[in-house]
Each structure stands twice: as C-alpha cells, then as structure tokens.
Amino acid sequence: MFNGRKIRVQMCGLTICPSGKLRRYKRRPFVAPIKYHLLVTDKGKLEKIYGNGVLVDISEGGLGMITDYPLEVEHILIFQDEVNINNITARASVVKWALEMEKNKYRVGMEFIR
Asked: Which of 23, 57, 74, 86 is 20 to 30 A from 12 via CA?
C-alpha cells in the first residue's frame, strides 16, 4: 500500500526500496525536469518512445524519477541531456523497479549505465 492505495512494485537493487530490499547507495533529494527516450518493440516493430519526467533523488548509483509513461523493469533510458551533479555524470540508466502511484503517474528507480 502507498498512501492507502495499492501499488505495483516490480523490482529493486540494494536504506529500503519500495520492494523492501536494501539500497547500495544513499539517495539525496534532487529535483529537476528530464527528457529521455527508450526503444520498445510493438507488434514486432522497434519504436522510439520520447518521455518527460521529474527527477526526485540521486545517488552515486542511480536516480529516482516520476513520469507519466509506464516504464518497466529493464527498460533502458537515454537522457536528452547528460545528468551531471556532484561528480556524478550519466547519459543512460536502466529501470530497476517501477510502481504506479496513481493513474498515469509512475515512480521509478534507475541504475546508471556507465
């Protein structure tokens, strides 16, 4: 349950993740808009999906984000602009867990791909 609502938790890496597992790195608040794209297959065709999100936290290992696209575990996101803060630089990440907060609003945890 999340704020009294049912949530869908898919997975997590290693603090406590929504799945109940421990995090490897401590996350710090970091709020910023972000644009990304990912490749998905739809009926056998490769399709590039563009999305927008709001970053909500960051660590040495990854980011937390809220978006309106239903990202799934193992989706790989390419950021339009490189994320660069406190000696952390990243251009891409992989979704490690995702949950639906409310209709068309998703919270995801991502691990950097370096």
From this structure: 86
Tell how strand 45-58 and strand 28-42 pair up. Answer: antiparallel
CATH of 28-113, one of 2.60.120.650, 3.40.50.720, 2.40.10.220, 3.40.50.12710: 2.40.10.220
pLDDT, tens digit, 9 for 90 and up, residues 19-41:
555 667 788 898 999 999 999 99
Q: How many other CB atoms are there within 10 angstroms of residue 61's CB atom?
A: 21
Q: How many CA atoms lie within 13 A of 5 on its CB side?
A: 9
Q: Which of 55, 53, 73 is nearest to 64 (CA)?
A: 55
Question: What's the whole-model pTM score?
Answer: 0.78
